[in-house]
Specification:
The structure holds two protein chains of two kinds. By secondary structure, chain A is mainly alpha-helical. Chain A has four helices and no strands. Classes of the chains: A mainly alpha, B mainly alpha.
Chain lengths: ~80, ~140
């Protein structure tokens, strides 16, 4: 996957996440903050942050699987169309 | 850190998806996925996931650098504009002023000449003038 494709895919997935999960993914995975720092920034407790993070990480994984699955399907369909 | 074996990686990934890894452990995973060429098929999706974060983090860093560079440029620009600038009056402004002055002069001249050569009274007494006019009109109406 190219860099620009990765950026597009992450943006698309982030748009699908609830706002709290999106913020926490941004702060943890992209900015690299500790849980204590995220707690200070978001005014959430660490347990709630962990729960949101665990949900968001699994949702992102699911979306990547979906993306790859759809990608192969689209290719198959376009090949069929050409044939 | 890419010396991490598959078992270790899988264990860390399990913790990762439960939201239980520390930042240091997440960095180990990040490094493993970035540096390892041969990834087992079952971990490919996780590699993609970590690559998405890496790309976003790099873009974020680049944006920050760009911001700093723009800020530096703006600061330099500010010191340049603070220096006195000798502005030359643009040529078109001088031309426009000259044209306006010329127009006022010419129209003034025409008004003055117009007043000077305008119609003059031919008779001092209005009664004589009236009679003369009557005569002229009678003459025209008979023709």
């Amino acid at each position: 996957m190219e860099r620009s494709d990765r950026t597009k895919l992450l943006n698309r997935i982030m748009d699908k996440l609830p706002e709290q999960q999106r913020t926490i993914i941004q702060l943890r995975e992209i900015e690299g903050f500790e849980f204590e720092e995220i707690a200070l920034i978001t005014d959430m407790n660490i347990n709630a942050i962990r729960v949101n993070l665990f949900r968001a990480r699994n949702k992102i994984k699911e979306e990547i699987i979906k993306y790859e699955h759809n990608g192969h399907q689209t290719n198959g369909a376009s090949v069929k169309k050409i044939l | 850190m890419s010396t991490m074996d598959i078992k270790q990686t899988e264990h860390l990934l399990k913790k990762y998806y439960e939201g239980l890894t520390t930042l240091a452990e997440e960095r180990m995973l990040q490094e493993y996925f970035t540096e390892t060429q041969e990834i087992p098929a079952e971990l490919v999706t996780s590699k993609q996931q970590f690559m998405l974060y890496k790309t976003a983090a790099e873009a974020r860093l680049n944006a920050e650098k760009l911001e700093l560079r723009i800020a530096a440029l703006i600061d330099n620009q500010a010191t340049i504009t603070l220096e006195p600038v000798h502005q030359r009056k643009p040529m078109y402004r001088i031309l426009a002023a000259a044209t306006i002055a010329l127009l006022i002069g010419v129209s003034g001249l025409f008004i003055y000449l117009g007043q000077k050569n305008g119609p003059k009274d031919t008779f001092a007494d209005p009664m004589i003038a009236y009679n003369e006019a009557q005569k002229a009109l009678l003459y025209v109406s008979q023709k």
